[in-house]
């Protein structure tokens, strides 16, 4: 069950990263870009916690 949550988090992280890099803002960061960067950071943090818990469990 834990591996499924890690896979789901990785998929969401890939989607969020792709959505951020698809936008083409050149000079300034809009609110949507800020939220995308924030979502990527949160998902990466969740992924790290899940991986550390999996390593600690084994």
TrEMBL record:
It comes from the Bacteria. Keywords: Membrane, Transmembrane, Transmembrane helix. The chain crosses the membrane at residues 34-55. The keyword Membrane applies. This is Uncharacterized protein. The lineage of its organism: Bacteria, Pseudomonadati, Bacteroidota, Flavobacteriia, Flavobacteriales.
